[in-house]
TrEMBL record:
It comes from the Eukaryota. The chain crosses the membrane at residues 50-73, 93-113, 125-145, 151-174. It comes from Gossypium tomentosum. This is Ycf49-like protein. It holds the Pfam family DUF2499. Keywords: Membrane, Transmembrane, Transmembrane helix.
Length: 187
């Protein structure tokens, strides 16, 4: 804004030489409305939640190895908290949870793209991502219960859902490619 003010001075510029006077470019004369949204085509993101999520993720990632068993040391209390040796640290949990949130967000964005672009085959890609989300839930559940031997069936289920999810996404991508090829041949 300050640059526009400096470049668009209402007073004529006095020159002692024969150089031409600089004029204000047209795009600087038209004031743009200030909005509270980030302008990304087809997305309408509010900056405060985005900054909050990014800030929380950074804080969790930079917190270091802080598990519940280390909490009394951090808080200066003598509360006895015991966790098994295979418990996940706070940054590892942050990565697990943020990965699931990112995957759900990606599914929603792919679905919206399919609706707004008119290419319904993109919705199939969103459906193809569902088994992989199920696998992510299996992994988080297994870790939540400290990798319990009684829940090892979740590891096998996660592996199966990963294979199924990779196959469904491959098929959905093939459908998108087929529809795109048909549309490009019409041109």
């Amino acid at each position: 804004m300050a640059n526009a003010t400096l470049l668009c001075s209402p007073l004529p510029i006095q020159t002692n030489s024969s150089l031409p006077t600089l004029r204000c470019p047209e795009f600087l004369k038209k004031p743009r409305p200030l909005t509270g949204n980030l302008s990304i085509p087809s997305l309408n993101w509010k900056p405060k939640p985005v900054i909050g999520i990014v800030g929380s993720a950074l804080a969790l990632a930079l917190a270091g190895s802080a598990s519940a068993s280390e909490l009394p040391l951090l808080l200066g209390t003598s509360l006895p908290l015991s966790e098994p040796a295979n418990a996940l640290s706070l940054p590892t949990w942050a990565i697990h949870v943020s990965s699931v949130v990112e995957w759900i967000t990606a599914m929603a964005l792919v679905w919206q793209y399919g609706e707004k672009s008119g290419f319904e085959s993109w919705k199939g890609l969103s459906w193809g991502m569902v088994p992989l989300l199920g696998g992510a839930f299996c992994a988080c559940t297994w870790h939540f219960f400290y990798n319990s031997e009684s829940l090892e069936v979740l590891v096998a289920l996660q592996a199966a859902l990963t294979v199924i999810g990779n196959a469904t996404m491959c098929y959905a991508a093939f459908r998108i490619c087929k529809v795109t090829d048909k549309n490009s041949q019409k041109l």
